[in-house]
Amino acid sequence: MNTVKQQMVPCKFLRTMKVTHKLLFALCPMLVLGFIYYSSGKLHLHIWGYKSLVAVRPAGSLKITQAKTFPKVTTGLKGAEPHGAANHFIRTSFQWIESEMANIVSKGKVVDPAFDNQGFLLTLDAKLPVELVHQYGNLSTGACKPGYAAAKMAAIFPKFVKPAPMFLDRSFKRLAKVNNYSPPFGLKTQEKVIDTILTATKTFGLSPVLERLSCKRCIIVGNGGILANKSLGSRIDEYDIVVRLNQAPVKGYTRDVGTKTTMRITYPEGAFQNKSHYEKDSLFVFMAFKPVDFKWLRNMIFREKLKGTEGFWKSVAQNVPKDPSEIRILNPYFIQEAAFQFIGLPLNNGLMGKGNIPTLGTVAITMALHNCDEVAVAGFGYDMNTPHAPLHYYETVKMSAIKESWTHNISKEKEFLQKLVKANIITDLTKGI
After folding, report:
1. How far apart are the C-alpha atoms of 321 and 71, rounded to whole Å?
2. Measuring CA to CA, how many Å separate 236 from each of 138, 146, 239?
3. In the 8-state DSSP scheme, what is residue 70?
4. What's the DSSP call for residue 115?
5. Spatial distance between the Cα atoms of 102 and 119, rounded to a whole number of angstroms
């Protein structure tokens, strides 16, 4: 009898080892799925068993639209007593992982193939998303649509977050997104001079009349030659906020560009040097590309004589005939967001370099997406197929001159602007984009 028991022990042991081996073999898929689970938040993976997982929703929310359940799990084991229990355990585990994968997707951690590398929806059209139909679908024709630009932007670019102040105020040091970068993408190393400037300007918003508007319509008037002979002046003047750029003149061109100027965004080399060109009742909005630009602005505000022009790439204005209360500093977050998030230009360690600076027009559009309810543009679009066409509406420089620019990536920038037009986020009056 003892001999029989002794023989049975190794048999039981072998059967146990065999079952254990089969269980380990059955659990291999679990290890693979576990890896996918923990990696999915960091890697752009097409999760096995899922198709078209994510559909964009306003304000960055994500929702599963189609999920194919994991297939029934079989181990392929036959004759083992614990086979049914093991299979049940694995099926239950798969179901748990499936649930967890759904949670990951719902939190936006899985990149859906419906989005491009920048995070924009690939399929774009002018139709309102279902979620916005109830909000904007029944408004009468011509009625201003509160929050429309930001809502549609979030619908095609879930990472879009609306709150971003138009101008810097005295609390600018709390803006982490800009204080970690040097100009033009931030304010690092310039905090002291900016604080001095803001102490003098004292005001940090639009006019009280504009601030009280419940719905603001904005138009960014570009400098493109496409504006010439379009007779859009009266239509441009209908907008609540008219934004102009650099030295683009109004006088002598009002039939095409209008008469109204709410703000003019510029940098030292782009500012009018002739004092008579500055419009009354408009804001001088400053944008810095380099540290010396802030020193120039301080000189302009305190009416100090420039101590040389070293550091500028061409001559700059010696005087800006604006009261300090009419001067603002554009939030540099807009150039950072336009460059790195919207267009996908190279970070270059956060420094200005070859081909990583968006044009001033695109920066102005980015600002408007955050601060205006409806956004339109006019005078935008570089047609590189017409090198002899006028680059600007007010001078004879040809389109081919833009090829000499080392700071801009015109083709990538155009791709971004075309997305906005196609999704009806901005209205292009001159249809040059």
Report:
1. 73
2. 26, 20, 6
3. P
4. B
5. 20
Q: Quick one: how far is CA 248 from the chain centroid? A: 26
Q: What does the DSSP assignment read for 246-302?
A: TT---TT-HHHH-S--SEEEE-GGGS-SSGGGSPTT-EEEE--SSHHHHHHHHHHHT
In this structure, the strands spanning 62-64 and 54-56 are antiparallel
* Tokens representing residue 281 in the block: 């009742």
Please say whether the dihedral angle defined by the alpha carbons of residues 16, 18, 22 and 28, taken in this order, is positive or negative.
positive
CA atoms within 13 A on the CB side of 111: 14
Per-residue pLDDT of the chain in tens (433 residues, 90 and over written 9): 444 444 444 444 445 445 445 544 555 555 555 554 444 443 333 322 333 333 334 333 333 333 444 444 444 444 444 455 555 555 555 555 555 555 554 454 455 679 998 999 999 999 998 889 989 988 878 899 999 999 999 999 999 988 899 999 999 999 888 999 999 999 999 999 999 999 999 999 999 999 999 999 999 999 999 999 999 999 999 999 999 999 999 999 999 999 999 999 999 999 999 999 999 999 999 999 999 999 999 999 999 988 878 889 899 999 999 999 999 999 999 999 999 999 999 999 888 888 899 999 999 999 999 999 999 999 998 776 777 788 899 988 877 777 666 688 888 999 999 999 999 999 999 999 9
What is the C-alpha to C-alpha distance for residues 333 and 325, in angstroms, rounded to an integer? 22
Give the contacts of 389 (CB within 8 A, at least 6 positions apart): 225, 383, 398, 399
Are the beta carbons of 402 and 385 closer than 8 angstroms?
A: no
Tokens of 341: 């998030």
Which amino acid is residue 374, in one-letter code? E
